[in-house]
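Work Package 4 report. The design task specified in the project plan requires that, given a folded chain encoded as structure tokens, an amino acid be chosen for each position. We show below one input record used in the internal validation round.
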């Protein structure tokens, strides 16, 4: 059963401007430790590729936060939600800390898709619950 659906489109120019104002601190706020390492490698080779990576992760986390119904509050925090790649390259949501516990208590599973084009990054997330009796309103106790 579908628990929630989230989508987000991010203007890469906006990410570029935020990065220009705040520098690496902006990336450190948005990215998990694993993502930060990937971002640094990509940025070192090609700065524009690093910005696109940052924009897709920003967009994916926004879409995920909408799908779980909390927005960017409660258990949802930027660095606790990681968008990693499976061995074949497909993106996956990897959660950490309190967000991981909150998600597991509800028996949820996330599916994420992301893309970027010249000026935009977009993401779509579906969160499902195998047992509809476990579905609870965001912020409620299990």
């Amino acid at each position: 059963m579908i628990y929630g659906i989230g989508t987000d489109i991010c203007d890469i120019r906006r990410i570029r401007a935020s990065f220009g104002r705040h520098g690496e601190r902006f990336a450190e706020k948005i990215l998990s430790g694993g993502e930060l390492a990937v971002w640094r490698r990509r940025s070192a080779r090609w700065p524009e590729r690093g910005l696109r990576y940052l924009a897709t992760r920003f967009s994916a986390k926004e879409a995920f936060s909408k799908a779980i119904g909390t927005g960017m509050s409660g258990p949802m925090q930027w660095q606790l939600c990681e968008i990693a790649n499976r061995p074949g390259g497909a993106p996956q949501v990897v959660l950490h800390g309190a967000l991981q516990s909150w998600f597991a208590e509800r028996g949820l599973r996330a599916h994420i898709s992301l893309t970027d084009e010249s000026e935009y990054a977009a993401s779509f997330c579906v969160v499902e619950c195998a047992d509809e009796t476990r579905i609870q309103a965001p912020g409620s106790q299990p």
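The chain is about 45% helix and 30% strand. Validation will be extended to a larger panel in the next phase.
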